[in-house]
Amino acid sequence: MKARVHVMLKNGVLDPQGEAVRHALGAMGFDGVQGVRQGKVIELDLAEGASEADVKQMCEKLLANTVIESYTVEMT
């Protein structure tokens, strides 16, 4: 079983990496980009019997800083 966790900064939290990407795209001639939010994707290979609740606990304890980040979980 696999899980994919998408972690993004919450709205209202400054994203300096996203801003650097937006600036670089503008410098490369991509003037239509008004904003960039950068996040991360974490893929987990899980043992049989692992649940989405287990993955959410992993996110709450380690994978996401829930003060400034939100996350979503996909199980496959």
Automatic annotation (TrEMBL):
The scientific name of the source species is Sulfitobacter donghicola DSW-25 = KCTC 12864 = JCM 14565
- Please explain the role this protein plays, according to its UniProt record: Part of the phosphoribosylformylglycinamidine synthase complex involved in the purines biosynthetic pathway. Catalyzes the ATP-dependent conversion of formylglycinamide ribonucleotide (FGAR) and glutamine to yield formylglycinamidine ribonucleotide (FGAM) and glutamate. The FGAM synthase complex is composed of three subunits. PurQ produces an ammonia molecule by converting glutamine to glutamate. PurL transfers the ammonia molecule to FGAR to form FGAM in an ATP-dependent manner.
Q: Which keywords has UniProt assigned to this entry?
A: ATP-binding, Cytoplasm, Ligase, Nucleotide-binding, Purine biosynthesis
Q: State the Gene Ontology terms under molecular function.
A: ATP binding; phosphoribosylformylglycinamidine synthase activity
Q: What is this protein called?
A: Phosphoribosylformylglycinamidine synthase subunit PurS
Primary location recorded for the protein, binned into one broad class: cytoplasm
Q: Which InterPro entries match?
A: PurS, PurS-like_sf
What reaction(s) does this enzyme catalyze? N(2)-formyl-N(1)-(5-phospho-beta-D-ribosyl)glycinamide + L-glutamine + ATP + H2O = 2-formamido-N(1)-(5-O-phospho-beta-D-ribosyl)acetamidine + L-glutamate + ADP + phosphate + H(+)
Q: Which gene encodes it?
A: purS
EC number(s) from the headed UniProt entry? 6.3.5.3
> Pathway it belongs to?
Purine metabolism; IMP biosynthesis via de novo pathway; 5-amino-1-(5-phospho-D-ribosyl)imidazole from N(2)-formyl-N(1)-(5-phospho-D-ribosyl)glycinamide: step 1/2
The UniProt subunit note reads as follows: Part of the FGAM synthase complex composed of 1 PurL, 1 PurQ and 2 PurS subunits.
Q: Name one Pfam family in it.
A: PurS
Q: Where in the cell? A: Cytoplasm
GO terms, biological process: 'de novo' IMP biosynthetic process
KW ATP-binding (keyword) present: yes
Keyword ATP-binding attributed: yes
